[in-house]
Amino acid sequence: MASRLAGKKIVLGLTGGVACYKVADLCRSLGKLGAKVQVVMTQSATQFITPVTMQALSGNTVYTDQWDARIANNMPHIDLTRDADAILIAPCSTNFIYKLAHGACDDLLSTLCIARPAHLPLFIAPAMNVEMWSNPATQRNVAQVKQDGIQVFGPAAGEQACGEVGMGRMLEPAQILAELEAAFQSKTMAGKRVLITAGPTFEPIDPVRGITNLSSGKMGYAIAQAAWEAGAHVTLVSGPTALDAPYGVQRQQVQTAQQMHDAVMAQVNTQDIFIAVAAVADWRVANASNQKIKKSSDSDTPQLQFAQNPDILASVAALAKAPYCVGFAAESENLLEYGAAKRIKKNIPLLVGNIGHQTFGKDENELVLFDANGHQALPKADKQSLAKQLVSEIAKRIQTN
Ligand code: C5P
């Protein structure tokens, strides 16, 4: 999938901080995604990483000095941002936040920030020691820059270069990229609360065996990511998968259908949208053993008995104040006929059909959306693109709901 950052010009500002070494990687990743990167460094930043490295990685001249005569009109503080799509300061030091909050312009980067066109977004990824971050003066300055429309990415909590532990670590480059990608996404789900189930369930037979299915969780995770990028507060209730939680999404891990049901029902009352993507086992083993079942003789096979699992989607759809419900149907044939029928049977406004064995574990999929007006195909694409399309289709429908 083409990144939303492809073709964008990002002015990447580095200020003083050990996290500069991570920004070398960030710069490279931006380039790989097709962004044009213009690096500007403060004098302090050059103590941590050289302009030579950043020039090699960005493929562009690096500017550090407001009196740099290489720009024809000698005004790098103006010229460098006029064709830019965003300014990103990473790492952003305590001192630089102070300068932004007070409108200082005593070096190239701070002057460039205050001279930016009013429409140009400015993002900062703070990086500092825990005490510096929690100091009331810093917190005052952070509140001020937010109020001025500067978007703050992070920081995260964790172990710091100084050996202390706490808030103030810069986000990892991949997380900063996720924030940046999201910043260029229209916020069609701003403020909405979205609950999503994803992945398979695992129904134990005994402590070491169980029944599961081939769902990888990729589609549900992609939808969670896309909903977060569209401005939603997303909770993902996930069965066992090999996937990392998408950045920005709150994930709860469960194993069985019953656990997934309980986790969903415990929080569904506060949700605006419920998207049931999980491939939930219809049955569990009623006579599961607490001990490993032994093979005693060649002819002796265990007799499993099954009990029906709760239908999570049906339980949610039946609530008096049900959120907007979206179901998935993985069929093996006759998708158009079965999909339309399943939407009515499940009593939900939107059902997403796909051919199960063509999608499980794959990176691509094709979808058919069924609603009260009929059906609509989303042609074959990678799951991230389909997830974004689906999120905007859901957003359209809740606006007119
Ligand atoms: O009836 P079927 O299992 O094909 O329905 C699939 C849809 O119902 C999916 O959205 C799936 O997540 C949901 N489902 C559920 N709980 C179950 C079975 C299916 O939420 N026990």
Automatic annotation (TrEMBL):
Residues that coordinate or bind CTP: D282, K292, P310, D311, I312, L313, F328, K342, K346
Active site: C162 (proton donor)
Cofactor names: FMN; Mg(2+)
UniProt keyword annotations, A-Z: Decarboxylase, Flavoprotein, FMN, Ligase, Lyase, Magnesium, Metal-binding, Multifunctional enzyme
Keyword Nucleotide-binding in annotation: no
PROSITE patterns on file: PROKAR_LIPOPROTEIN
UniProt GO cellular component terms: phosphopantothenoylcysteine decarboxylase complex
Positions of the UniProt region annotated as Phosphopantothenoylcysteine decarboxylase: 1-193
Task performed by this protein: Catalyzes two sequential steps in the biosynthesis of coenzyme A. In the first step cysteine is conjugated to 4'-phosphopantothenate to form 4-phosphopantothenoylcysteine. In the second step the latter compound is decarboxylated to form 4'-phosphopantotheine.
The family this protein is said to belong to: In the N-terminal section; belongs to the HFCD (homo-oligomeric flavin containing Cys decarboxylase) superfamily.
The name this protein goes by in its record: Coenzyme A biosynthesis bifunctional protein CoaBC
Gene that encodes the chain: coaBC
